[in-house]
Amino acid sequence: MLSSIIPNFDNELKSIEEIANKGIVIAWNTGYSGAEYLLSTYSEKWKEEYHSKSLQFVDPTVWWAIRNTGQCRWSETGYIDISRVFKKARRYDINYGAIFSRLKNGKKSILSVSRHDRELTDNEIMLLTAQWDRMTNALIANANLSTGELEVLKMLRDGYNYPEISYALEVSVSGIKKRVAKSMHKLNAKTPTHAVSIAIVRSYLNDG
User: For the chain, how many structural domains are there in total?
Assistant: First the structure.
């Protein structure tokens, strides 16, 4: 999914993993209902323990990311690890890391990276900061949807059918269908309704 809105996503991911030699987590477009997209490269055993014990609710790095925008080493969040999340992680050789939090369209996108051998250097954090900014800025580019495609998605959202949209926009029905098909491709949507839902979640259809 992320490859549909982030140019060269696979290469971006490989670049991050060159620094994060023990694992990464990407929580994309996170709101009250959770993340629109979640990627974790950690071991299945650690992921199972983390989620089965709901450690995300007591993880100091998650608390920091929710309450702040920026970047921070895990060791510098300032939150007390009362549930010993870091100690549990060390059993899987996850010893050091950094968190990167960005707010786009009213939702947080979070990158967490880890190493087994040492703290991330200032230069590595600077590189990842620039990279995460580049990746999250893709969110506000409306997935390269054209003005015409956005118009059609807005009218579908508002309950209009194809003939009604065709009449209002003075575009043939086949032209409207082509716009919908292009929107679906750009958003990696399975149906027109799915495309509208994705666009709403990402705040692409906000008026004004």
Answer: 2
